[in-house]
């Protein structure tokens, strides 16, 4: 690695003009910002370029893992931090990320979310767990998986460290957008399970949805966040239900889509 290690922040986009400016502005402390766009029809690409990001278009969608693999190819830094277009890095986390890079530690770093749904920060909810977001490039081989993709490392035993400060995650701004995300992620989750030969059905979906809602709304304290907390938990539960409904009723379609 270079005497002063460098950082790339990589962002995947598709029609993200609403959030991309705030996302990229929060990443300006990085040495390199790379955007891989999946064929946006709005102003996403123009906005990203105007903010100094290196933008590469890959509209032939083959899944989240493949887009991240394409992004890796454009990274020229020692470390890479993956940032979603609906996320913002607060100043405290930016400082923590920079310190981690300068330490030159050969680790994998996880980050937690502060969820913002329908205009309200859901800070009274307990976190749903961390996601691995920063890696030394020398240790990162590729990503695998249709959704909730997994990093494949040269050293699978690499220790994982968790950042103390959290990302702001604006995942559900409107009910309409939540319905669109519901369809996308339910289909991807169903396809992932179909590949593994798992079974679906209405009863399995209902059981999964009920368990998810109880966990989020009661045990993770979504009920403390008012109507916005209820909607957040309800949409995630619906995603669980339709995932198993699709797995049963749309199985032939999912199989055909996977072969294309």
Short account of what is shown:
This protein is of the alpha/beta class and 260 residues long.
Quaternary form: single chain
Topology as a string of helices (H) and strands (E): EHEHEHEEHEEEEEEEEHHHH
Taking pLDDT < 50 over at least 5 consecutive residues as the criterion, the unreliable ranges are: none
Mean pLDDT: 94
Please state the overall shape, judged from the principal axes of the Cα atoms: globular
Q: Main beta sheet, described?
A: 7 strands, mixed
Rg from C-alpha positions?
Answer: 19 Å
Q: How many β-strand runs? A: 13
Helix content: 40-55%
- Sheet-strand content, in percent, reads 15-25%
**Helix/strand class:** alpha/beta
Give the strand line-up of the largest sheet: 3-2-1-4-9-6-12
- Roughly how many Å apart are the termini? 40 Å
Q: Helical segment tally?
A: 8
């Amino acid at each position: 690695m270079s005497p002063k290690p460098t950082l790339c922040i990589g962002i995947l986009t598709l029609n993200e003009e609403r959030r991309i400016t705030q996302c990229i502005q929060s990443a300006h402390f990085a040495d390199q910002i790379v955007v891989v766009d999946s064929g946006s029809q709005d102003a996403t690409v123009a906005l990203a370029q105007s903010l100094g990001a290196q933008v590469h278009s890959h509209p032939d969608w083959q899944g989240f893992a493949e887009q991240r693999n394409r992004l890796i190819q454009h990274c020229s830094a020692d470390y890479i931090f993956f940032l979603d277009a609906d996320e913002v890095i607060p100043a405290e986390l930016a400082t923590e990320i920079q310190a981690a890079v300068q330490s030159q530690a050969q680790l994998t770093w996880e980050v937690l979310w502060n969820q913002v749904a329908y205009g309200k920060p859901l800070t009274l909810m307990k976190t749903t767990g961390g996601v691995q977001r920063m890696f030394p490039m020398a240790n990162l081989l590729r990503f695998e998986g249709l959704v909730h993709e997994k990093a494949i490392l040269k050293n699978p035993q690499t220790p994982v460290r968790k950042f103390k400060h959290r990302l702001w995650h604006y995942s559900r701004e409107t009910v309409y957008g939540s319905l669109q995300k519901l369809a996308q992620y339910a289909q991807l989750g169903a396809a992932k399970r179909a590949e593994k030969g798992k079974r679906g059905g209405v009863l399995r979906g209902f059981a999964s949805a009920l368990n998810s809602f109880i966990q989020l709304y009661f045990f993770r304290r979504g009920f403390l966040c008012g109507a916005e907390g209820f909607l957040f938990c309800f949409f995630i539960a619906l995603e669980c239900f339709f995932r198993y409904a699709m797995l049963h009723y749309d199985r032939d379609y999912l199989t055909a889509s996977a072969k294309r």
